[in-house]
What does this fold into?
Amino acid sequence: MGKDYEREDILRNMRISVIGSGYVGLVTGTGLASKGHDVICVDKDKTKVDKINEGEPPIYEEGLKDMLQEVTTEGYLRATDDIFEAVKNSDLTFLCVGTPSLPDGSIDTTYIEEASKDIAAGLKEKLGYHVVCVKSTVLPGTTDHVVMPIIEEGGKEIGPEVGLGMNPEFLREGVALKDFMEPDRIVIGGSDEKSIAVINEAYEEFDAPVIKTDLRTAECIKYASNALLATKISFANEFALLCEEVGVDVYDVMDAVGKDHRICRQFLNAGCGFGGSCFPKDLKALVDFSKAISLKPRILEAVLKVNEEQPIHAIDMLTEEIGRLSGKKIAVLGLTFKPDTDDVRETRALPMVRSLLQRGAHVFAYDPMGMENFSELVDGIEYVDTAIDALKNSDGCVIQTAWDEFKTLKADDFHRMKSPVIIDCRRVLNPEIEKEDVVYRSIGLG
Ligand code: UDX
It folds into this structure.
């Protein structure tokens, strides 16, 4: 591609608007502001906007509060609920709104469409070149088939007046700011070279390889990353079942397998499966999309199936140890989809608890942060204040989330149970604990 823009067109300290102030938008806005850009964060929720302007992040992310306070105090970041004003006063807009799943698993782009309409309206009064960059996870083709026509309808010409970009995020909840500031790579898709150059400028101060590509490739990279990570987890989970049968420990196996740099050890921890706001949603969307274009997503469907069955396998293990669950008191330790969050979206605790209830068990649950959110998902269980309270007089326990505080539980704590049977779904405890008069079973431990 020939150079069709002047380097001077692009300002070093850019004026950036970020639409949607959830964990992706706020982390993106704060991180870019910390590099000296003028950032305006936009959200419909006025309470969120006020909080951000006071330097108070509405969500918890490690390190975010300090950085947000710094950038708001120094005037690099402000928030507003007025999207038109934000677009008018910026040269690059990141779209960071949610793309939830519809009940059939397909992706809902309503928020993307609504925000694109507002951006198009804001651009009418905007002087000079502007780039609209999608950060939300969207299926291949969405940026040029959904966003582009809406922006064009606003009256600006794609190319000379407006550029389009697709810059996926790879942020893990809880460590999102670190992931943003120290990325493994930055993927920039663009409708032309100039749009890519503008987005690249926003990341000028970041130390990471930059992959410059087209819009669809960028959209695919995000889905391929998440699908492959989820596949690794389901692979480890399926292999775990084999290890249980042949009497070996899947963690020993994966430790060695992961030493191969072509594979790497991460995301090979067997357990009761993956949850959260991304993996299950993105896989379902990809399956639905593949079928819609007449493909057979065999691997992806298998990944989801393993993930559905894994929590039930844990409950089956418990049944093997203590017999019928009807009338038994079962302690469930950990309700969130991973530690250090109160997020229970797609948590594996839900199918587990449902299975326990179906089998007639009395469930006593404890989680350091997730009990309130979990109580909105299911009725008929009791919540207690500590792990020990859950364990007392119980017939069995299931550890579902790898919270640090569960790692400190000792054999004596389990001796308070009526029968000290532990099903450790996240390899939280040292298997050696079984030498101390408890029954210890863990997924993938033969
Ligand atoms: C994930 C991706 O990592 C991130 O790049 C993307 O942008 C959003 O989705 P997140 O959902 O925050 O991030 O959590 P992550 O730490 O990836 O864990 C996801 C789920 O997989 C959790 O339920 C976790 O317990 C499970 N998991 C993870 C395993 O079961 N085994 C593993 O080895 C790793």
